[in-house]
Write a structure and sequence with these properties.
The structure holds two protein chains of two kinds. Chain A is of the alpha+beta class. Chain A contains twelve helices and twelve strands. In chain A, the strands form two sheets. In chain A, strands 3-4-9-6-8-7 form a six-stranded mixed barrel. In chain A, strand 7 (about 155) and strand 8 (about 160-170) form a beta hairpin. The relative contact order of chain A is 0.18. Chain B is of the alpha/beta class. Chain B is about 30% helix and about 25% strand. Chain B has helices at about 50-55, 80-90, 105-110, 120-135, 150-160, 180-195, 265-275, 275-280; strands spanning about 5-15, 25-35, 40, 65-70, 70-75, 90-95, 165-170, 200-205, 215-220, 225, 235, 245, 250-255, 260, 285-289. In chain B, strand 13 and strand 14 (about 260) form a beta hairpin. In chain B, helix 5 (about 150-160) runs parallel beside helix 6. The longest helix of chain B has 18 residues, at about 180-195. Chain B is globular. Classes of the chains: A alpha+beta, B alpha/beta. At the A-B interface, helix 1 and helix 9 of A face helix 1 and helix 2 of B.
């Protein structure tokens, strides 16, 4: 039966490929929806991931950076730096702001860097300076490309005009971007004199970040200290919460589409093979084996569709990112495995569609010429 | 015939539909077929021949009556039991050949083997024998759509025989074949009954089959009736005894000044191998029945 099922499937390669491409189309929808979501979510925590640090210190009651506001008195930075196990404490100012470029508003996380310290600055500079001085700003290179801006151009942060002196890489996505300014400029915009938003703490070698965070919370009044891993997880969770329903709905639509396409394909395959299946039943093949044959074909079509979808997604993602810079795509390594399981579920559900047809198939049909 | 019958059908009835639209396709038919017997069921179109064959093959459940194949009452079996019986005890030959289009000749022949004890491996020797006997050696790897009608039917016959069934049920086995190929197929079926001890039940319109049949049954209006007689004008094949229309026959041989007509290449070859054996008693003669 296995031999016959597989031979029947490959006997019409064009039909098989067309069927698999239909399934691949639906699965690619799922892959890309998830990739966009993962890409955007990834970019939201990119700043934290790239600047690393062991512990982040913020205002008590605050536990994340994304869409949050935090203020700590600047004198606490020196106190934090003196705590046992702290190698370096780097303060930053931070705000979620809208920056105006060429008359258009762009949402951005703006990081205010302290004078003379680029520890919390851009991790990859494409062109220009690594550290903005007063009245200067570093914007994402992609944003500059989209808006046609170059070094020396001017942008507006609230009402403050800032000159673009550097272009950073990996700091832009559809949902947000990261802009780096001088702390004094941002302090001016935020009216936050004598304040910092967050303190990036580098621990001494061998010090456990969790222990250090607890020590900071204990010794410094009215602050929260969170190990980097927890801080990233908290921001990522918030990003997920913000779009997860939409992504879920779109993923369900993609999966539904894949089921319908696979189901239709398997149904038409079964219809085409009706006579042969009836002959097989007449020759003594049992219903369950005939159904197994239909299921196996569905699984093969779904897995072939998955292989095509995965190959196209991995080769197509960089192309899409190059053509549409607004979109950040990240295909998580576990996606093919997850979709493999999904493809098997799709095949099982899809093969139920012609199951009734198989069970009701009259073996006496083999006698009809 | 002292041995118990291989096929035993008693008061078999099949009704399609209900009430005013009910049609009795088969009406109170009883028949028995013994081991190695070749029985022909003839009758006009729509007389219920295929319905009867479907019921005997366990493909269709009778409305009433009982059927026993080799002592097993098929009317008592569930679907799985019927499938097992069909796989192991019955071989089917269809008018439309019904080969599986994606499989080669060899794979088609071996297809039912996985349904029998031993599976394909055990059946491979048998398949090789059948391929050789049915002259399919050169077409072993060919796909069905590249075969002639006669070749396709020979593959179907080999497939029917692979599990060494007790019964062969053939529905119009010569229906899609030309005269010569049809006669060849009939000769093979005749040999199967004689050499393999299979009970062969053939449903056909083809009057030539009458000559190889041990019994001829006439089915009309769903019931078995007295056989109708027809006028024929035939000459006899000296090897198998089958009547052959000498105007359409293409196989001839001369021996001791006598002209002989053959139904198939197979009979011609057998004759040429030992002409004295076949020309001794048999003389071609015209028949008017």
């Amino acid at each position: 039966m296995l031999h016959w099922t597989l031979k029947s499937l490959v006997a019409r390669p064009v039909y098989l490929l067309a069927s698999a491409c239909g399934v691949a189309f639906a699965l690619m929808l799922v892959i890309f929806i998830e990739a966009v979501f993962a890409g955007e979510s990834g970019r939201i925590v990119a700043y934290l991931q790239k600047t690393k640090g062991d512990v982040w210190v913020m205002q008590r009651g605050v536990s994340n950076m994304h869409m949050a506001t935090s203020f700590i008195s600047d004198w606490k930075v020196a106190k934090i730096a003196k705590i046992e196990g702290v190698r370096k404490a780097t303060p930053i100012l931070y705000m979620n702001a809208s920056i105006e470029i060429g008359g258009r508003q762009w949402f951005s996380f703006v990081v205010g860097m302290a004078e003379g310290d680029d520890r919390a600055g851009p991790w990859h500079v494409v062109r220009g300076k690594r550290r903005p001085g007063k009245g200067e700003v570093i914007i994402p290179a992609t944003l500059a490309r989209i808006t046609g801006l170059d070094l020396g151009a001017t942008i507006t942060l609230n009402t403050k005009k800032l000159k673009v002196v550097g272009l950073s890489g990996g700091t832009f996505s559809m949902a947000n971007s990261v802009t780096f300014a001088h702390a004094d400029d941002l302090s001016d915009v935020m009216s936050a004199f004598g304040m910092v938003s967050y303190v990036l703490v580098d621990a001494e070698t061998g010090v456990d970040p969790r222990t250090l965070a607890a020590r900071i919370r204990e010794q410094i009044d009215k602050v929260n200290a969170v190990p980097l891993r927890d801080f990233i997880a908290s921001d990522y969770a918030m990003a997920m919460q913000m779009g997860v329903e939409i992504i879920d709905i779109m993923s369900i639509i993609g999966v539904g589409l894949a089921i319908v396409i696979t189901g239709f394909t398997v149904y038409s395959q079964t219809s085409r093979r009706r006579r042969e299946l009836a002959v097989a039943k007449a020759l003594g093949v049992r219903n369950r084996a005939v159904y197994g044959s239909v299921l196996l074909q569905a699984v093969c079509i779904a897995l072939l569709g998955l292989a095509i979808a995965t190959a196209l997604a991995y080769t197509g993602a960089p192309l899409i990112e190059a053509l549409v810079p607004l979109v950040a795509l990240t295909i998580e390594p576990e996606v093919p495995l997850k979709l493999g399981v999904l493809a098997l579920v799709i095949a099982a559900i899809a093969s139920l569609i012609p199951a009734r047809q198989v069970l009701r198939l009259d073996p006496a049909m083999a006698f009809h010429s | 015939m002292n041995a118990p019958p291989v096929i035993e059908a008693t008061h078999l009835t099949k009704t399609f539909g209900h009430g005013h639209v009910a049609v009795r396709a088969v009406d109170d038919v009883s028949l028995t077929v013994g081991r190695g017997e070749l029985v022909l069921i003839m009758g006009p179109s729509g007389s219920g021949k295929t319905t009867l064959l479907s019921m005997l093959g366990g493909l269709l459940r009778p409305t009433d009556g009982r059927i026993a194949i080799d002592g097993v009452e098929t009317t008592q079996l569930d679907e799985a039991g019927l499938a097992k019986l069909r796989a192991r005890k019955i071989g089917f030959i269809f008018q439309a050949f019904n080969l599986l289009e994606a499989l080669s000749v060899e794979d088609n022949i071996l297809f039912p083997a996985h349904l029998a004890p031993g599976g394909r491996t055990a059946a491979r020797t048998r398949a090789n024998e059948l391929i050789a006997n049915l002259d399919l050696g050169h077409r072993r790897r060919a796909l069905p759509d590249t075969l002639s009608g006669g070749e396709q039917q020979r593959v179907a016959i080999a497939r029917a025989l692979i599990n060494q069934p007790l019964v062969i049920l053939a529905d119009e086995p010569t229906g899609n074949l030309d005269s010569e190929k049809g006669q060849e197929v009939l000769m093979i079926l005749h040999d199967i009954a004689r050499d393999e001890g299979c009970s062969v039940l053939i449903v056909t319109h083809d009057p030539r089959v009458e000559d190889v049949a041990d019994r001829v049954l006439w089915l009309e209006d769903g019931g078995l009736r007295d056989r109708k007689s027809d006028q024929h004008d035939w000459v006899r094949d000296p090897v198998c005894g089958m009547r052959v229309d000498q105007w359409t026959a293409t196989r001839f041989a001369e021996h001791e000044g006598q002209r002989y007509v053959f139904c198939s290449q197979r009979c011609l070859e057998r004759f040429e191998a030992a002409p004295a054996q076949f020309s001794r008693d048999t003389r071609p003669h015209d028949t008017n029945e």
